[in-house]
Amino acid sequence: xxxxPLTDAERRAMLERIGVRSVDDLFTLIPEPxxxxxxDLPPGEPELAAARAVQQxxxxxxxxxxxxCFLGAGVYHHYIPxxxxxxxxRGEFLTSYTPYQAEVSQGTLQVTFEFQSLVCELFAMxxxxxxxxxxxxxxxxxxxxxxxxxxxxxxxxxxxxHPEYRAVVETYVAPRGTELVVGxxxxxxxxxxxxxxxxxxxxxxxxCVVQQPTFFGTxxxxxxxxxxxxxxxxxxxxxxxxxxxxxxxxxGDWGADIAVGEGQPLGIAMxxxxxxxxxMATRERYVRQLPxxxxxxxxxxxxxxxxxxxLQAREQHIRREKATSNICTSEALxxxxxxxYLSLLGPRGLRQVAESCYQYAHYAAAAIAQLPGYAVxxxxxxxxxxxxxxxxxxxELNRQLLAAGILGGLPLGRFYPALADCMLLCxxxxxxxxxIDRLVAALAAxxxxxx
Amino acid sequence: xxxxxxxxLSVPGRPGHRVPSPEVPRADLPPAALLRDTLxxxxxxxxxxxxxxxxxxxxxxxxxxxxxxxxxxxxxxxxKVDDAMANLPGFxxxxxxxxxxxxxxxxxxxxxxxxxxxEITGFAAVTLQPAAGAHGELTGMLMIRAYHLAxxxxxRRRVLxxxxxxxxxxxxxxMCGYETVTIPSDARGNVDLAALERALGPDxxxxxLTVPSTLGLFDERMLEITARVHxxxxxxxxxxxxxxxLLGVARPADLGIDVFHLNLHKTFATPHGGGGPGAGPxxxxxxxxxxxxxxxVRRRDDGTYYLDxxxxxxxxxxxxxxxxxxxxxxxYTYLRLLxxxxxxxxxxxxxxxxxxLRVALQEWYEVAYNRPCMHEVVLSGRRLKAHGVRTLDVAKxxxxxxxxxxxxxxxxxVEEALMIEPTExxxxxxxxxxxxxxxxxxxxxRQQPELLREAPHQTPVGRxxxxxxxxxxxxxxxxxxWVGEPPRAAGLxxxxxx
Lengths: 451, 498
What we know:
heterodimer, A: alpha/beta, Aspartate Aminotransferase, domain 1, Aspartate Aminotransferase, domain 2, seven-stranded mixed β-sheet, four-stranded antiparallel β-sheet, 13 helices, about 15% strand, B: alpha/beta, 2 domains, 14 helices, about 35% helix, about 10% strand, globular
């Protein structure tokens, strides 16, 4: 065991000091028949052997990086500048913990303060927290927060909010009996139609949740919805893709009361689902209802600037059952990665990434729309994703694309039965014109496997 | 030495990271009403970014640099191979919606890790999806709620929580719609059985029990507690934050626990990251398996793996896209290094180290409950109050000695608490140095109490004004004048001012 440093001699000396004969004497409270159970695991391996075994598992996967990737749907294949990993893997960041002792945690605290500031700038919101587990749980917490603020328990969600986000909201509100109302999504011959969620609001509605761009890629104008919220007293909650905000009008400018989003696109690996980070921001007047950690600037005994965890009276370790959430350990390391990414990219870099996504997606969509049997159902304007109706069942189509080295789009039947013959395609700056031309050619060549 | 903010280092027009121009004909952008006017992000070169974050890292204490005995957090060494494995492109570049035939290695890893954790804890099934301990608590308590409701038992509205519990326990119970009832500890640090008996009844859904407790103790009547809870028709939720004491020593399921979460970032050596990411898998008895969150990883007879969503009694989804896979890869790698033989040695060394500190420090500090402890020891600093010194001052003075302070003022039931968890990866030499520092500090408290009250002395900032921080919250840049001038980067400070 290379990680337990005690020698036999040291062990003996320590036992003698404690006044017991063996380590067993320290475990006598464990009822005897239950003590030292047989654990059916293989014996420990040296690093080389363990690494070899784990590498073999990794080799059984075929990652998106080895294919031309057109898969998105809430998780995106973006370029991660080398400096992100180099800095975030520093042991001083990696192996510290929640900064309860501020004097020896100024690194983590300042990074978190900068992360909060960067999220505020990106979202054009007044305050942001230190991050939630992911975009979906950030949305669930936003819904609970809206219920606390309004003392109402009816929630309206657009049908174009990510289906898995809606599922997580359902899980979180289940014990509370919240009424969830979901807007309809209908499939027209040439385009998807979304019900106007403004029509679903009433005086009992705590909040209205929309996504920008939507799950289907559409970019909406939310001015009318903001007015509908004002009429009914419902809060406007927006789920936003942070990369899209390099180009698009931010949630604060639409009048969002709470804005959330998945931080993964900001320099964080897809990693088969996580760890990522949920972004969450709101208006200053709601700050005491925010869940999660908050870092504030202050001064020390000599007047020097420093940072501390603050407004902790919202949190579980102080308020226990009256806390705004039970969240404790969250995603500090991912906040660091997102902060490094945004610092490296700056305003021009982020805008260029966003525009590349947009341009590649529009190039691909225009070409696919020309193919016989295919139709692009996401109406303009859209960002970097679009729904394609396919002449071949989407899963079958994906198998044929794979033969051409292409990771195809998400088949939509699992989430929207009416869209069973559709897939959601995505382009990012990682794609090239050659890849897109190859995708279009492979789609054109696709045939039903069963005649 | 402190560090300016990114916004203060920013210079308009600085060239940042270059992105290739799209090599396709340019489409029109959306109408201007849908676009943003300004994007006020900082503008820095890569070198400036690298220096900024490197300097910030140097302001932290971390396990990689110092002894970090933060109680209840298990700040053990995190083997570097774990990170290397998680960063393999075969894992890190996997999209969670990839067709299953492209991710069989990932699914196999998940299935094997579930089996390993089930074997270690003695439970029938495990979900790896929860993102952290508190998220595991939420998942587990939602399953307990679903279990009672599925049996047509709608009367159970209360959850019992000992007074020594983590704050996450009552907060979780509240999120699940339960009223919490606090159960006191008795004079020996056990759950007060009489109080438990009085609180139990047909309206109780569960007892949330941390095993070993946050006092670092194994309850002397563990089996009696779980039996009584079960007799009342309630379930026992086990908070596994302290499992590092019990690996290969006792299985939580054998102790009568029904639902149990594990903190992979504590017991299974995945790095704490300055406050996450963690992972909080939940293990359950067979009766609770139908309620696990979807999807569940399954193995077909032909050896291939798939994700099962067809589970009508499931509590649903607790997180989009599965769990913290990168953390799970680290824990899996660690468990391969450890093996069955390594497990018990971890806990034996962790408990030996904690008891060594208990005995060595008892002469200078009061031990809250002086009997053999498990993986951590809780001291009380109340004797020092006679010298006008508090536990907070002891903690800050430890920083001067080059140690991260223990957890302080928790658990709440111990006055002036100091909760010390050395973990198994620390050497006797380190423990002896820590003991010497603690003794010296106790001596200083008597002779030069101001040395403690003014500590720490060597850090980039001294004690910070938390009261004003909460009263006049400054939660983003630009910072107002009262918080101080923008600090200058190290190289720009004249030597006489450093």
